[in-house]
C-alpha cells in the first residue's frame, strides 16, 4: 500500500476503517477478475483512489468516510453516468448519493455481488 494511502487509512476510526479495507480489497479483486492491469493506488482529494493507469481501461474509483458518523462511500466521476447506470441495474440493492457515490452506513449490509458489478463497470468504463 502506498505510504500516503496507508496514513489516511490509519487516521480513520476502527469501524469505518474496516469497511474501507474491505472495499479496497474488493476493488483489487474486481480489477484482477476483469484483467484491467495493475491498479495505481494514490490519493485524489485526500481520499484513496484506484486508477487503471497502465491500461487506461477504466474510470477512477475513490473510497472514503463521509461526514456522517461511521458511513463510508465509494465515489465515481459524476460526468461518466456510472451511478445512474448502477441505479438502473440495482435500484434497491445499494444506496446512492446523487450521481457520484454509493453509500454504506455502519449498519448497512454490503451487497458485494452488486457492488462488484458496479466496480467492474467503472474499472472497464473506457474499454471499447
Features:
single chain; 128 residues
Quick synopsis:
The protein is an alpha+beta fold and 128 residues long. 38% of the residues lie in helices and 21% in strands.
Question: If you had to describe this structure to a student in words, what would you say it looks like?
Answer:
The protein is α+β, with helices and mostly antiparallel strands and 128 residues long. It has a single domain (3-123), classed as Aspartate Aminotransferase, domain 1 (Alpha-Beta Complex), CATH 3.90.1150.200. It is 38% helix and 21% strand. It is built from 4 helices and 6 strands; from the N terminus they run H-H-E-E-E-E-H-E-E-H. It has a 6-stranded antiparallel beta sheet. 30% of the residues are buried.
List the helices and strands and how they pair.
Layout: H1 3-11, H2 14-33, E1 40-44, E2 47-51, E3 61-65, E4 72-76, H3 82-89, E5 95-97, E6 101-104, H4 112-123
Q: Give the class from helix and strand content and strand pairing.
A: alpha+beta
Tell me the strand percentage band. 15-25%
Q: CATH topology, what is it called?
A: Aspartate Aminotransferase, domain 1
N-to-C CA distance: 30 Å
Strands side by side in the biggest sheet: 1-2-3-4-6-5
Amino acid at each position: 500500500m502506498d505510504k500516503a494511502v496507508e496514513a489516511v487509512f490509519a487516521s480513520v476510526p476502527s469501524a469505518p476503517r474496516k469497511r474501507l479495507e474491505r472495499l479496497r480489497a474488493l476493488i483489487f479483486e474486481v480489477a484482477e477478475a476483469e484483467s484491467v492491469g495493475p491498479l495505481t493506488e494514490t490519493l485524489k482529494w485526500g481520499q484513496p483512489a484506484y486508477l487503471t493507469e497502465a491500461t487506461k481501461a477504466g474510470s477512477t474509483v475513490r473510497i472514503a468516510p463521509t461526514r456522517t458518523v461511521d458511513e463510508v462511500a465509494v465515489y465515481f466521476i459524476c460526468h461518466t453516468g456510472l451511478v445512474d447506470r448502477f441505479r438502473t441495474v440495482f435500484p434497491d440493492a445499494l444506496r446512492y448519493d446523487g450521481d457520484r457515490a454509493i453509500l454504506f452506513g455502519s449498519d448497512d449490509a454490503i451487497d458485494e455481488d452488486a457492488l462488484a458489478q458496479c466496480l467492474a463497470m467503472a474499472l472497464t468504463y473506457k474499454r471499447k
